[in-house]
């Protein structure tokens, strides 16, 4: 089981507030398939919420301890039927994301000729992170995120 300081736990608790449950444990309890799903979610996200369906509080506490021991995760918070778990992401995934670059990617656009009898035109274009290629082969930027007028203060 991973040990965290109270300050780290508090920071993770505030970060987890906005998260939705990623894994739901049903009436069958903590099966190997559920543990595998929780493990995969921890590898992908690091900080997750798990919802437990049972009404027995003691069973939920026992389940929480079992998950943390078997997966090497740190218990962050247990409120009602929600369990918050943390485990640092693995280094292999960090390396893979660093190899991708700074959001630039090269895309090949193939457009058929207007008459249909000649060769198609092939162009290679470098796209930035907020750009995409439409079905017609045009490059469009993503629209800026809309902001609420109520949150202006």
Q: What key phrases describe this protein's structure?
A:
single chain; 153 residues; alpha+beta; Translation Initiation Factor IF3; 2 domains; 4-stranded mixed sheet; two-stranded antiparallel sheet; 8 strands; 32% helix
Describe this structure in words.
- With 153 residues, this protein is an alpha+beta fold.
- It has two domains: 6-92, Translation Initiation Factor IF3; 100-141, no CATH class.
- Helices cover 32% and strands 26% of the residues.
- It contains four helices and eight strands.
- It has helices at 6-16, 32-45, 57-71, 91-99, and strands at residues 23-25, 47-52, 74-79, 82-86, 105-111, 121-127, 131-133, 139-141.
- A four-stranded mixed β-sheet has the order 1-2-4-3, sandwiched between helices. A two-stranded antiparallel ribbon has the order 5-6. A two-stranded antiparallel sheet has the order 7-8.
- Strand 1, helix 2 (32-45) and strand 2 form a beta-alpha-beta unit.
- The longest helix is centred in the middle third of the chain and has 15 residues, at 57-71.
- The model has no long low-confidence stretch (mean pLDDT 85).
